[in-house]
Amino acid sequence: MVHEMPRSKKGILIAIEGIDGSGKTTQSKLLFKALKERGYNVVLSHEPTEGRFGREIREKLRRNHIAPEKAYELFVMDRKEHIENKIKPALDNGAIVIIDRYFISTIAYQGAAGVSISKILEDHKQFAPIPDLVIILDIPVEEADKRLSNKSKDLFENNMNYLRKVREIYLNMKNFLNTNIIIINALRPVEEIHKEILNHVLKIIRNN
Ligand code: TYD
Fold first, then answer.
1. Would the CB of 53 count as within 6 Å of ligand 1?
2. The domain that contains 28 carries what CATH number?
């Protein structure tokens, strides 16, 4: 059940992943800035996107109105558009593409919601380039809950038991995906985590 896909020939694809509150967005931005400063051609993006399907997903999540299969369908449609319009062109152009969430989120979140992980892998094999590096920021669910308690929470952020399952799948991602997967203890200071991520990324760039 391992995801085997040809890697992109030119660019480098990096996915930053983790449960809500793990600090993905902060770390994605720091990584983007550090690579830019080093003169690399780098593109930063995120999922769900700001496109029509991404907006529909956010809206539905806010109102708690969505069955797992329907959510899955929308995430896939959003991702297909994202890959066609942005990720593939950037990779073909030789860029380092950083995405704050990718299909790894679908494996973890929709997998935890009951969608078959083998189906998710099989579907994505058809259209989604596999990342050269997956960074998973790991924090306990209790910590995520504390960090998010002042923000508005959506369906996924609400349920601690659900997030525990999501985290469990993230921690076992090497069973599903055949690529470089790094699990990072994200309880540490932001700058320390950033340095660790940057070191892993520079290693991947050197070996590319
Ligand atoms: P998130 O990146 O946290 O959005 P925001 O920046 O608005 O906080 O993503 C929103 C939620 O969507 C988050 O709880 C994770 C969930 N999600 C999935 O369930 N499956 C997916 O494939 C993706 C990309 C996100």
1. no
2. 3.40.50.300
